[in-house]
Input
Amino acid sequence: MKKSRTLLAGAVAVMISAAPAPAADAVLNIYNWNDYIAPDTVPAFEKATGIKVSYDLYDANETLEGKLSAGNSGYDIVVPTLVPFAARQIKAGFYQPLDKSKLSNYGHLDKGLLARMEAQDPGNDHLVPWLSAIVVMGYNVDKIKQIMPDAPLDSLRMVFDPKVVAKFKECGVSIMDSPTEVFPPALLWLGLNPDSKKPEDLKKAADLLKEIRSSVRRFDSSEYINALAAGDICLAWGYSSDLEVAKHRAMEAGKGVNISVVIPKEGAERYIDVLAVPKDAPHPEAALKFINFVMQPEEVAKTSSKVYAMSGNADAKPFVSPEAAADPVIFPSPEVEKTLYTITGADPAADRLRTRLWTEIKTGH
Amino acid sequence: MIPAPQDSPWADAAATPQLRIRNVVKTFEGFAAVDDVSLDIYRGEFFSLLGASGCGKTTLLRMLAGFEFPDRGAVELDGLDLLKLQPYERPVNMMFQSYALFPHMSVAQNIGFGLRSEGLSRDHLEERVVNALKLVQLSEFAHRKPNQLSGGQKQRVALARALVKRPKILLLDEPLSALDKKLREATQFELINIQKQVGVTFIMVTHDQEEAMAMSTRIAVMDKGRVVQVGAPHEIYEYPHSRFVATFIGSINLFEGMAAHGPDGWRVDCAHWPLRTAQDLAALDHHQVALGVRPEKIRIAPLDENFAADNVCEGVVREVAYLGESMLYRVALPSGFLVRVAAPNLGARFSSGQPVRIGFGADAGVALDK
Amino acid sequence: MRGLSEERKRALGRFLVIAIPFLWLGALFLAPFLIVAKISLSSAAVAIPPYEPLISWADDGALVLTLHVGNYKLIFSDPIYLIAYASSLRNAAVTVIFTLLLGFPLAYFIATRDQKWRAPLLLLVMLPFWTSFLIRVYAWIGILKPNGVINGALLWLGVIEKPLVILNNNFAVIVGMVYGYLPFMVLPLYAHLEKMDWSLLEAASDLGAKPFRVFRKVTLPLAAPGIVAGSLLVFIPAVGEYIVPALLGGPDTLTIGATLWNEFFSNRDWPVASTVAVALVALLVGPLLALQHHRTKGARP
Output
């Protein structure tokens, strides 16, 4: 789940973008996250199949959900995050079952991941795993060490211990503007179930977040990539794929900004983004062809290397760039993998409470 | 209206002018709108700036009001250097051609507007407004808005609004041009009466020579940014200095010819009709001049009626215009030259094609060399 | 019977002339508004579309109309909505004041230029519209950020020692909104100033009024309709402004636009989102009607 580049652009997209061109043979309408596919995958698919791809972008699950909720989106393939989005969207009847007899490359998929997905998608009827990453922290190593030589670099304390995070206030702390990615680690830091939906737990987490609020310069889900790479901030809570981008940009810039992306030892949220075909997709056959195409290990490995995320394809790792393959944040060790948790969907009342608490944390009202 | 000598301060060398305009020049993008104008205007005058549009008369007026500043020259009012003052500091007020009444204010508010910056007491201010309304007979319209007034009423509000300030000089920019003909005549006399009542110097810009003649003590005729002649209406009319003034004011016959001296005195040797004149043309001897003769100075008579005059000629009536109070004829001389003749509408009338005799005295014409 | 048919044609023409704007308003304003109002009386559901239908068939074949007024109760019971409304109204009002303070001299300047300069100057005012609003607001981030243009210049000049915090707060929001809405103020003001009778200003000056009094007593009252038009044109969209606070605002910037976004996307609660929108319209339409009433009354003799 790459989630909101800017929530705003998503909202604008929902408001102004018309549905794609009407159905025609040999056409495929894909709606995907921005920067979430290798640049040559679509041309290769077009060349291999003769199907013309029309490719639209979004930057927030909310945008995608808003569009699918209205119906008649016109898209053939979308890429929601498994929980809570794809899970509840299956229940709401957004997607059609996939005809696996037409997916000859299905066998390459990671069986463990498929098993984990069955909780949300019984029989793996509707979804195919695409990419998976983790919600983690990234920081400017030199600045942090300069301010706090004994900083707990591998712990949630960096962000969620009010006394620690207060030290980094001056050099800049950014936290994602997304309650679903911030409540779980806060709950975990408090020793509670990170997936808890209990109002009293959520309120406790909110109290903690209110305490660290004064140390946070910006609640933001997209600018932190550039800000961290440019040295404008020194600590960010965000998506591992985004933070990896920041790290590589800083290295390329060569201005001595040294970024570290770290999975907290207490655990972190793994999220899975999946491919799905909307129920009213105008070109379901073409959609299946595309899914089968990107299930080739070589194809998805290109995307995996490009966007710094693990793919849901068990046989892809050998084709991934050596640098990415060796990155413990993209491919954690089995021990670390065990500490990763996933979040389940919440009922609307819990969602509303969480959103409300989030507004309260941010604005004080 | 020929003023009595005591009404002609400009003729008195010892009198001090109220307003002195000295060598004023104003150019717009290289074009001299006002070109070296000097004028003396005396207290209590009704002075008109007369000329065709574009002659610079309005620019001159706007410089007196302070909306334009001259490039060169001086303007003094009672010894006060007007050019150092902004419009709102000048003891001068203007009545605009469009009247420029404030549409969002009532008649009384319009009139009171100028008084509010004078720091008058409320009662005093109201009294002045009431008096001004009385002066222009608009007391019952005090609470109307300008768009509820007729053209004549608006004009009077504009007048009252300017006069209530008790200016030393009132500037009037084509004050009657927006009125219809009938109202215009009535208003002319009203303006003259009001001026006499308040005793303020009026300087009026107009393109209408009749209006200027009827109302002014003196007229400055302007052409191409310059003042070509200044004088009382009868002077301008009877003794124009130039062909331009002669033709601009009223109607005139111009007999072009060489000035020469003969046995009978001075004459103008016009090819169409050699003419005798009582004027001393010594300074113009053997110069090309025009003898200007107003149509009403020429007598017209049937051939069988003999009349004596210094200049007599036979001709044929070519055109007849019936003007009610007078008849206007165009009489062709033997050379074909057309002479305009105006005759009072009494007794004999002549018809087209009728041979006639026309003539005038040696003192009827004025020789023009410019 | 030719006359009659002409008569009929004319009646039809009159009808069409009146009907077209009404159809336009009906199709593009009233119908969407009624749909939103309808959704506001529903309740959220996990479905396509994500709310319960108002009318449903009961098992016994009866037609059931279910209206939820709970959404309206909700937005009045939780102060967050009122606070968001108040903060949006305040920002819009401040934006109106600043666009007026900047826009009036600008419009006045253009309207008093020579005829040949007015069109190019107006074009300059409208030029920013050729670029996406989003990009222009992003440009302000570059100008206002801690190592941006303004702070860079001030630091270089030695005026300040550490960067001013002028981004991600309400100051930045106001800057962005004033920037974005300035043309909406300038254009109607210009339209009114341009056709103003300048001799009225000369007359006022001639009558002894100093420039400030001329401005206050003549220019301002005569430009009043333009000021009202410009203020409305700025105020109405400014209340619902989403983009500028989202990009330039800080985390504590609370606006009705952001509240709507939360309801629509985070809570997936279209009915509550619709309720917030309906309440916003009610909040705007009330004062507008009052103003319109006042204006028509003022225009009557």
